[in-house]
From TrEMBL:
It is found in: Cytoplasm. The lineage of its organism: Bacteria, Pseudomonadati, Pseudomonadota, Gammaproteobacteria, Pseudomonadales. A motif (Q motif) lies at residues 11-39. One of its GO terms (molecular function) is ATP hydrolysis activity. It catalyses: ATP + H2O = ADP + phosphate + H(+). The gene is rhlB. It comes from Marinobacter pelagius. This is ATP-dependent RNA helicase RhlB. It comes from the Bacteria. Component of the RNA degradosome, which is a multiprotein complex involved in RNA processing and mRNA degradation. Residues 42-223 form the Helicase ATP-binding domain. GO terms for biological process: RNA catabolic process. Gene3D superfamilies: P-loop containing nucleotide triphosphate hydrolases. Residues 389-430 are annotated as: Disordered. Pfam families: DEAD (PF00270), Helicase_C (PF00271).
Length: 430
């Protein structure tokens, strides 16, 4: 969860009249002051109002909605004898497995003294274990991705007509990933919107997201938190202008610098990430892949190895990268600049976390350079551009892998030419 001393206001969690068990958990995690999104939203959501919140990743919105949910559970307890398995009281929907796992982890931390049960249902992990939890445990907070939840609804292993709080996180990403039909089906199974509290969060709000928000919420308060700077103040950003055939050698030579402890390398497409992982392994880099096509249990193992330092570099797509919440990432590399300026902000936000400084290096070939103006406009600053020095252009020890497609030369270790861009009703508190 995010607690950034530079982004806190004057509101303390102890000012919010929270249950002591929840307050003790918040204090134990190390939180004292609310971040702006928490200070703006909690007075509304703790009063049981629906809310539509616009905030970037890393602003503390997860804690905001979880604190609301847990406080509600504490204030309106239902005796176990009146509860049944398969009937969660809180449902949090997230677009990706990584985000769902992170929300669940945060929820478990906040529930450490309250005794509430958090269950996660996501694709790519043990289906039978998840079904067993749903069938045999009283579920207080259910965190789910849409596809796997649809499976369990179809098999009648979960029922949503007792949901008191519905949380929709990263609604814009759900829209981008094509999940909205599934989400609509899920919401039709939930308690009617006038009988539940609905909290919807999104990094961006286009008209499609706003239309959905109006359908799913009732008299919702709208809160928008614009970051003081859309890019992290503590991230030093540099763009190297180079040829496509120089990208790999510049990247490898930079990764070998002693100050690069943990790094994430972003590319725009899955096939580019696969090729890049292979190239880096060929150069002796301790690297692993994070993308949607990797099985969830393997991704979790990879993330654990990355945290422990057994892996130095992760190669990731944007969707997988948004689920990487690891302190101590010293460098982020953009092997390609993203088409979407907002994705650039999400990428560099993987470093410079928890009060540390970070470095972002973008490798801009001819195609990438066209996206630079849009990124600079979005972040409201001019990015430093330079040509890589001779040490970064040094020949690689191993020749680059030659592939039939992409036409990369095997001598000199350059990069590959880039193709196309790629029914218990809500008990309101007074």
């Amino acid at each position: 969860m995010t607690s950034d001393p530079k982004h806190t206001g004057d509101l303390k969690f102890s000012d919010l009249n929270l249950d002591k068990r929840l307050l003790d958990a918040i204090s134990n995690i190390g939180f004292e002051y609310c971040t702006p999104i928490q200070a703006e939203t909690l007075p509304w959501t703790l009063a049981c109002e629906d809310l539509i919140g616009q905030a970037q990743t890393g602003t503390g919105k997860t804690a905001a909605f979880l604190i609301t949910a847990i406080q509600t559970l504490l204030e309106t307890p239902i005796p176990d004898k009146d509860r049944f398995a398969s009937e969660p009281r809180v449902l949090a929907l997230a677009p990706t497995r990584e985000l769902a796992m992170q929300i669940a982890k945060d929820a478990e931390q906040l529930c450490q003294y309250t005794g509430h049960n958090v269950v996660t249902v996501v694709g790519g992990m043990n289906y039978d274990k998840q079904r067993d939890q749903l069938q045999n445990e009283i579920v207080d907070i259910l965190v789910a991705t849409p596809g796997r939840l649809i499976d369990f609804l179809g098999s009648q292993d979960v029922f949503l007509d007792q949901v008191d709080i519905l949380i929709l996180d990263e609604a814009d990403r759900m829209l981008d990933m094509g999940f909205i039909p599934d989400v609509k089906r899920i919401i039709r199974k939930c308690t009617p919107k006038d009988d539940r509290q609905t909290l919807l969060f999104s990094a961006t709000f286009n008209q499609d997201v706003l239309n959905l928000a109006s359908m799913w919420t009732s008299n919702a308060e709208f809160v928008e938190i614009e970051p003081e700077q859309k890019t992290a103040e503590r991230v030093e950003q540099t763009v190297y202008l180079l040829g496509e055939d120089e990208k790999l050698q510049v990247l490898v030579n930079y990764l070998k610098r002693p100050e690069v402890d943990k790094a994430i390398v972003f590319a725009n497409r899955r096939d580019q990430c696969r090729d890049l992982e292979e190239d880096l392994k060929n150069q002796g880099v301790k690297v692993s892949l994070m993308s949607g096509e990797i099985a969830q249990n393997k991704r979790l193992r990879t993330l654990d190895q990355f945290k422990k330092g057994n892996i130095q570099v992760l190669v990731a797509t944007d969707v997988a990268g948004r689920g990487i919440h690891v302190n101590g990432v010293t460098h982020v590399f953009n092997y390609n600049l993203p088409d979407n300026a907002e994705d650039y902000v999400h990428r560099i936000g993987r470093t410079g976390r928890a009060g540390s400084k970070g470095v972002s290096i973008s490798l801009a070939g001819e195609d990438d350079s066209f996206t630079l103006p849009a990124i600079e406009t979005y972040i409201n600053q001019k990015l430093k551009t330079e040509v890589p020095d001779d040490t970064l252009r040094a020949p690689l020890e191993q020749p680059a892998i030659t592939r039939k497609r992409g036409g990369r030369r095997s001598s000199g270790g350059g990069g590959r030419p880039q193709g196309g861009r790629g029914g218990s009703q809500r008990q309101r508190r007074n």
